[in-house]
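Feature request, filed as a ticket because there's no other form

It would be nice if the structure record came with a short human-readable summary line next to the C-alpha cells. Right now we just get the raw output. Example of a typical job, pasted below so the devs can see what we mean:
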Amino acid sequence: MKFRFDDQPHQAQAIESVVDLFEGGALVPSQGVVGQAPGAAGHAGFQLDRGVLARNLLAVTTRQAVEAQDTLILMEETDLLEQPRDFPNFSVEMETGTGKTYAYIATALRLAEAYGLRKFVILVHTVAIRAGVVKTFEQTREHFRAKYPHLDYQWHVLGDSQAVPDFADPSSSVQFLVAGISSLDKPATNTLYASPEQANLWNGGATGIAQLAQLRPVLLIDEPQNMATPKRRKTIATLNPLVALRYSATHRDLYNLVHRLSAKRAAELGLVKRVSVKGVVAGASGQPYLHLKRIQPRTQRGTTRWLAELVVDVAGGDRQMLVLVPGADLQDESGGLAQYQGYVIESMTRSELRFENGVTLAIGQTMGVDSLSVWRDQVRHTIRAHLQKQADVERRDLDLKVLSLFFVERVADYISDTATLPVMFDALFREEWVRSGRLAEDMPDPATLRVHYFPSTKIGVCKDTSGKANEEAFEVRAYDEIIANKEKLLDLANPRAFIFSHSALREGWDNPNVFQIGFLRHTRSDTERRQQIGRGLRLPVNQDGNRVQDEAINRLTLVVDESFSEFRDGLNAEYGGAGERPDVENEDHSVTIRLRPEKFQSPEFEALWRRIRYRAVYRIERVDEAALAAAVAGHEHLDGLRNIQRRANVVQSADLVYDDRGRVVTTDETIAETSGERVVLVGQQLPNVVQLVEDQLLHGKFPLQLTRPTVVAILSAIPARYWAGAIHDSGYWARIVAHVIRTAVIEQMVENIEYVPVDEARWWDANVVFLDSETKNKPLAVPGRPAPASGVAEAPIDGVNLYDYVDYDSWWKNPLPSCWKTIEAWSSFSPSYRAASA
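Raw output as currently delivered:
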C-alpha cells in the first residue's frame, strides 16, 4: 500500500502564512557560485529585513484567524558556546492529525523555491517524533518530486556518521537534517563539539556544531513546548538559525503566531475524526485504597530526603493526597482507619515505596480497586466497539482495515510468566464475537489478531521505558516496527488488528486507521489526555491509500479508566482554555525557592508567629441517646443509603463537543451510563457495621466519643429499608451513617463546644512549618513576557516575603503584578498596624 497525498486547503493556508512573511524581506546575497542556488553553501550571506518582516506579519495575521501583530518577537539568547544570538520566531498551531509534519516540509520546499534557501534543520525532542518525520519523508517522496520537479532534496538523521558533512557540503539540493535536541545539548560529552580528527575541504577543522552554526539554517521546531527550558533555549541558539519556525498543537510560548487550526475548527472541517469517550469507573475491592502519585527529593537545611505523594482514604469519607516520609504510619495519617493497620512506610526509592508489612507500591500503581475488572471492562468495550466499527465499514463497502490500540503501563502485564492481558483479551474476544451475532465457526483465533510493540534490548528483551535520552536505543527498535511498517498493519490480508504498546509512545506515533484506544493504565501527566486523543485522530485510509471522508465512520472511541467528567475536566485543563497551553515535560527546568533568613528571623515575623502558633482541642457534652437515635432515624441524609448498589464498574459514554475556544462543553446530562463487570466478593465475612461506624466516628475530622451501647441504639433505630446497602458496600454505608450521626450531634451540641488550649510543647514550630528550600518544576514568570498560567515569580528584593520566589496558581489572571502587590502589601502597613493586625 502507498499513502496518497493531495493538496489540502488547510495545509496550503499554513504554508502560505509562513512563505508570505518573507516576501521582499529575504535579501539574497549577490555573490555566489554560478549554477548554484544562493543558499547552497548556507545562509550566512542572507539578510532578513526585520522592518519588512514586521509589515508582512501584520498583513498575514490580519487575514488569518489570529491576533493581528506588527512587532517581531525575537529569541535573544546566549548559546552553549557563550555567543549572543537573536533571531525571529514564527509559530504555526495545527491540531494533531491534520498533517503538521507534511506542512512544514512543504513550507521548507516553498521557501527553497521562492528564496533560494537550502539548509533546514528539523528539531525534535523524542525518538518517536524523529522516526515519524523520517517516515513522512519516505511516504511523500514521490508526491513532492511531482509537485516540485525542478527541486531536488535529501534528508539526513543526526547521529549517522556522514549526516553533518553531507548536510554542510555546498549543494543546490535542499538539505534537511533531522536532529533530536538531546543529541545537541551536551557539550561536555557530545562529539559534535569536539574538533574532527581529519579536516574536510569546506570547513577546515571546524567542529560539527560550528559547521552547523556557520550555515545559519532555517529551524523547523517540532513540538517546541518541550524545548522551553533554559538549557534547550541555549541549544536552539547554538545552531545560530536564520529564523525559527515553530509547529505544534499545544504551544507554550507563541512568539508570533501566524496561523491557527484549532481542535474545534479541525473537527468542523472534517479534517480529523470526532471523539467519543467511554469511562470505566472502578468499583471498590475491599482492600485499603492507595494510589502512589510520585516520589521526589526535597532539601531541607542541606539534607535531602525522599517524600511520597500518596492518595488514601481518610476518616470522614473523602480521599486526600498526603505528602509522607519514611516512617509514616498510614493508620495515623488517615485519622485512625483500621484498614491501614500495619501500613508503615519502611523505605522508598525513586520509583517504589515499601511498607513494613511487605506491601510494595510502584509510582502510578493503585491498590484498593479491582484493576483486573476495570481492565476487563476496558478490553471488552474496546473489542465491542472494534467489531461494531468493522461491521459498519463492511456494510458501506469501504475496503479499509479497522485497528484498535491498547496502551499498557508495564511490559510485564503483557509479556511475562504471569501476564494477564493476552489470556484476558482472547477470552473476551470470543465472548464479544458471539455476542455480536457472528457465527462461532467463523471466529478467527484471537491470538492471531493481536500484536505488541515494546522497547527492547539488542537481544530482544522487552523493557519499560519513559522516553528519557538514555533509553533511546531501546525505543528505536519498537518505533522502527510500529512506524516504519505502518502500511503492513493497514493491509486487510494482515490479520493483526489489535496493537498492544507501551505508554511511552506518545507524540510522534499514530496510525490513521486506529478507531479505538484502550488505556490500561492510571497515571496522568500534564498532557496525557490530549496525547491519547492524538494517537487516533487522523482520517483513515483504504486499501488504495486514499483518505476516507465518511463522517459516519470517522469517529475515535477512547476507553479510559476514569469518569467522563474527570476526563472532560482534565482535557480542558490540558488545552488550557482560551488559547492558553499547558506546561509539558519540563523536567530540565526547576526553581529552588529559598527561605530568607533575615525575614524569618525578623522581630516582626517573630511577633506575628507568637500570636498564631497555638493549638487547641475541643470537648462536647454528653448527648441524649434516645433523642439522638430518633434524630438519626429520621434524618434526610439517610436516603443516600438507598442508592447503594452491588459493587460494579460503571461504564460512561459521551461525545466530545467543542465550543469556539476549543474547550470541551459536553455536559454531564448527556453522559450515558451502563453497568460494567460486577466485583465478586467470595468468602468475605459479613461486615461488623457497629465497628465500622465507630471507626468513622472516632477518627473523622470531628471525632465523636460515643459509647458502644449508644451506637447500637442509633443503628437499631435505622429503618430496615436502608440495611441492604450494608452488605453491598459496607464501608460506604458506614461512612454515610457516621456522617448523619455526626451531623445530628453537631446540630444539637454546637452551642456547648468548649475549646481548650493544649500544652505549649505541642504548639506549631515555625522551623518545622517553613522549609529552608523547596524545588518547584514550574515555569518562571518573567517581566515583559506573557506570564505562564501557573508558575513561580521572583519576589521583590525590598519586599517582606519569607521566600525569594512566590509559587502561584492559575487563578491569577496576571500573576506578576498580583503576586508582587500581595507581597508588598504587608510592608506598606505601618509597624503599629501590623502589630495590631497580628
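Something like this underneath would help us a lot:
The first helix runs from residue 9 to 19.
DSSP finds 25 helices and 32 strands in the chain.
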